[in-house]
Amino acid sequence: MTIRVLIVDDHPVVRAGIAALLAGEPAFEVIGECTGADEAVLFAEARKPDVVLMDLQLGDGPDGVNATERLTALPDAPKVLVLTTYDAELDITRSVAAGATGYLLKAGPPEDLFRGIHAAARGETAMAPQVAARLFGHMRAPAPALSPRETEIVQLLAEGLINRQIATRLFISEATVKTHLVHIYDKLGVDSRAGAVAVATERRIIRN
């Protein structure tokens, strides 16, 4: 049975490369290419792909995690296989929480992608080895782990946002941001914003 695949990526060269790879495999049929989350959801509703290959960064619109959450909530939802360059803990945990069946890296060999699509179509988990190691390392870490919200805040700190901007971005109060920062500093063993970013980056909790 042919697996119907939708590619979601905002880079045309990347989409063309993936499509060319899959075209050489009779088990796969690329039924469409989309550049953003809204387009992908509309396409999936109309064409019912079996597997969606999802990049995480999709230009200025909603990101791949948002798209994954919306796709997996559809009736007869497709399986979503994240295919990205990012292996930070933040991206992995958000994608899994959104309902992604698997998480692969673009730097991996084509055979990993082929196996991942087959696994996703069967409803099985497909993880790049380094992604699986990071995910299990997070689950088994002896140190207190940052919550998803705390991880988001550290990522925004790394992007240079101040408390007021973080509060606006996350639709929370500045007081709540300050409370989260206290917990973040305690968990990471630091006493400053710069220290939190440095430790989170070193541990690959956030992306550079």
UniProtKB/TrEMBL annotation:
All residue ranges annotated as the HTH luxR-type domain in the record: 139-204
Any single Pfam family the record assigns to this protein: GerE
Sorted UniProt keywords: DNA-binding, Phosphoprotein, Transcription, Transcription regulation
Modified residues (4-aspartylphosphate): 55
Response regulatory domain span: 4-121
Gene3D superfamilies: 3.40.50.2300
InterPro entries reported for this sequence: CheY-like_superfamily (IPR011006), NreC/VraR/RcsB-like_REC (IPR058245), Sig_transdc_resp-reg_C-effctor (IPR016032), Sig_transdc_resp-reg_receiver (IPR001789), Tscrpt_reg_LuxR_C (IPR000792), WalR-like (IPR039420)
Official protein name in the record: Response regulator
Native species: Amycolatopsis speibonae
Lineage: Bacteria, Bacillati, Actinomycetota, Actinomycetes, Pseudonocardiales
